[in-house]
Amino acid sequence: MVSLGITLGDPCGVGPEILIKSLVHLSQLKAKFFVFGDKNYLEDLSKKFFVEIPKNVEIISLSQLKINPGFPTRETHLASIKYLKEAILWAKAGKISGLITLPLNKEAFEVAGLPYRGHTEMLAKEFSAKSYAMSFYGKRLKVSLVTTHLPLNKVSENLKLEKIIEVARLSYWFMKRLFPKKKIKMALCGLNPHAGEGGLLGEEEEKILKPALEMAKEEGIPIDGPYPADSLFYWALKGKFDLVIALYHDQGLIPFKMVHFRDGVNVTLGLPIIRTSPVHGTAYDIAGKGLADIGSFLSSVTLTFNLSKKC
Fold first, then answer.
1. Residue 199 predicted with pLDDT over 90
2. How far apart are CA 82 and CA 62, in angstroms?
3. Cis omega (within 30 of 0) on the bond before 226?
4. CA distance 57 to 5
5. How many CB atoms are closer than 10 A to CB 92?
6. Most Cβ neighbours (<10 Å): which of 165, 204, 304, 310?
7. Considering only CA atoms, which of 308, 296, 277, 5 is closest in space to residue 135?
């Protein structure tokens, strides 16, 4: 039986509610789930929503918090990091083969004195990943990012030939794992309008992107481009490309979330375990109101479960 971990994320966000509302679905999978969080709070929520905690879900209780949904505190931020750290220890010990992380506030890393911008960077560091990438999975659209949590004015200087090739390599591996019998086709976004228009609208395509593509192709990676981003995602949705590599956060995530906000999955490529998460955040504005949508979390669990079975 597959053993998977779930971190509760920010206990003041929608994570706890999403987990409780998903328990019926978790009970139907042939997997053991270990939830790193706050047992008392989750048990109270299960009573509120009239849901029993199934036998295949075990709560690893790491806090005893007084929680006011929508209003995080220093203690709840530190607890969310504690949940993640314990899950990482379990993964390193081989106790879980996959990890689904419910959303936490990035401020939690700062409160805990950690130099990370999010889950992805911390997990990559903890697992000593030589190369890693943030990717997003949906049935209609799949996107990987070259740069992630950077100010827009820092993107160009952080576009490195080696990183583009690395993301292409990891993305191809991911797609082959998902679809081993399919002939994969990937595409790279341009940075500038019209993909630079031959250098008239920017030089990054000629100086960085095209050389990176040639080197990737020499490795046997099936990738083309760079294509203007304003039309590339349309053709990907039409099935011309199986995965798009975007150069910065919003370039890839605006079109992805337009299509897959309710069922998309964030995947960290390059780790020794499968790690996924919902594509939304803590949603403090609706926390505790019973309004949270479980679709993205369920997609994350399903993808983690299916990929873990292939390990």
1. no
2. 7
3. yes
4. 10
5. 13
6. 304
7. 277
Separation of alpha carbons 159 and 295, rounded Å: 33
Other CB atoms within 10 Å distance of the CB of residue 152: 11
Whole-model pTM above 0.90?
yes
Rounded to whole angstroms, the Cα distance separating 303 from 98 reads: 10
- The answer to whether the beta carbons of residues 46 and 52 sit under 8 Å apart is yes
User: Is pLDDT above 70 for 182?
Assistant: yes
Phi and psi, residue 2, nearest 5° = -70, 135
Model pLDDT for residues 100-157, shown as the tens digit of each residue: 999 999 999 999 999 998 899 999 999 999 999 999 999 999 999 999 988 999 999 9
Burial of 244 (0-12, 13-18, 19+ CB in 10 A): buried
Q: What pLDDT, on a 0 to 100 scale, did the predictor assign at position 311?
A: 62
pLDDT in tens, 40-53: 999 999 999 999 99
Distance, C-alpha 32 to centroid of its chain: 21
Strand-pair partners of 144: 135, 245
